[in-house]
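Handout, page 2. Input:
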Amino acid sequence: MKLGFIGVGKIAGAVIEALCTSKMGELSVSLSPRNSEKADKLASRFSNVKKQASNQEVIDNSDIIFIALRPADAQSILSDLRFDDQKTVVSFIPYLTHSELAEAVKHFKHISRAIPLPTVVHHNCPIPVFNPDKTVKTILDHIGQPLEVKSETELHSIWTLTGLITPFYELMGALSQWTHEHGVDRDTTNQYVSDLFESLAYAAQKAEVIDFEELADHAATPNGMNEQAGKEIREKGAHEIYRQASDNLLAKFMKNL
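Output:
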């Protein structure tokens, strides 16, 4: 399978590493010279990865092209390149719709949009994807957990949630710090908080039907700690703050489309 990447930033780099450490079988991966230092490091690490001299060489040497350009640069860069009707295109660009991509690329076999995160490097990453074909699904299934959405509206709503990564880690950090201040070793608190949230998410993932309200009620023993904390946090509006932040992120996202 011949894969190419136009743009080699944080997300693309993680995807490339995930692909090269997956069980997909034989791959050849062509990288654009953009972010040359990162491309060189990946090429030196993996024997099946090669930095090409130009973006056009990436296209010419690939059957499936992943586009990971900055939104402000994407259309102008793509409009100068020659695609053909044998090329499958997968875009990681947030603010470029399917129709805008099609107009910029002009000739293609198929276009998909997907949202991998840096955690894909561990092969443990949900990957929302719009309009995938069978081959794209297979590739994503080897590096994470693809989640097909029915429309770009759904994709954009989910994309908004990726803006909550920083506050999530900040919450974990605040809880770890509180535990440390109450006498627990720093390494132990960090490990426990990380493992606690992972185990709770795992329980939800393995439920026959994921119902967060039911999971919360199940944990809230009458007069117990979870019931008390849940009530206090709800009444102080902490959850509503996350909803408001998401509304603001989505509004900004839609403004940029």
